[in-house]
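Entry 14. Ran structure prediction on the chain below.
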Amino acid sequence: MKKPVFFTYFFLIAFLVISCASKQVEERPLWADLETVGQVYNPSVYITAIGEGKSEEQAVSKSDAELASRFSKSVTAFTESSTHMTELDGKFTGSEKDLVQIVNVYTEYDISTVNHTRAYFDPVRKQYIVCAYLERKTEFKKYETKLALERKTYSNLFNQAVSEKDPIKKINLLKPLTEDGVNGDKYLSKLLFARFIFEEGASSYLQDLEKMASVPSLILQAKNEIIFYLFETAENKESVSALSRSLAKAGYASSTKNGTYSVIVTLNKNRTVLDEMVLLQPEITVEVLLGKESFYYNKTFEKLTSFIETESLIERKMNSMILDDLEKSFIPEFENTLEKLYN
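Output, structure tokens:
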């Protein structure tokens, strides 16, 4: 009787050992966590992104979306839901709802060469995990054609601007080349993106950042070559002084003796006296003679009133209003006109 019992226990133990071995949990890979993914994929060599989902396909999709978001213009996501009813003896007894997140990424950069790890199933979170990765050097070689073309365009425009003799034309040619300018911003974004992909490969292009950084000082040099001749009289002395300060703040030189372009400033206080009160409604006109062309600016200010004895107070306020307006309105309008005339 003991022999069958012995074999029974033996087969039972063997069955449990085999069963446990078959259910052994897979060790969590290092690439499945942000803290350790760099140990598998060196961040100086690879660009990585981790995605999770209820299925392997969803994990792959989310890893791609996370990777693409670094190159993207916009990322949108929405959730689709579906309900499953359970039928028992001809009756629907319950329901289960599945939620699936759909992620759309819009990017100008082609990431079709992305690689993926095999999916790992997290038994605790009941989620599949996938790591998407790109090799930096390979991606940079793909992107370098666009970068080189943008560099050529920027360099040609820069050389054209620097060689221009007319200071106003030079300023107009240089403005788009600043970091905020149309051409500067376009090239800068590509330079920074190239550095993000593979800094070592982009190093020779990054020297152009110094060229771009020099543009504001070149604009200032060109402005200093322009001297505005301000016609000064006893009536417009304060206004001329205000205009001179506004021009200087914008980087331009001015003189009351001679200059490249003549500027006529006219101030009309429109002064009215009623009994013991004085009323001012100042109006300023600025005309800049630019060879065959001219720029005309006119502004009427709010009325100012005071007692005759304190008229000096509202005159100081008037001068302050004029200075503020010249800086905030006249200078921008004037420079916009220069761009239109000399482009």
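Confidence is low (pLDDT under 50) at residues 73-88, 91-95, 97-106. Will compare against last week's run tomorrow.
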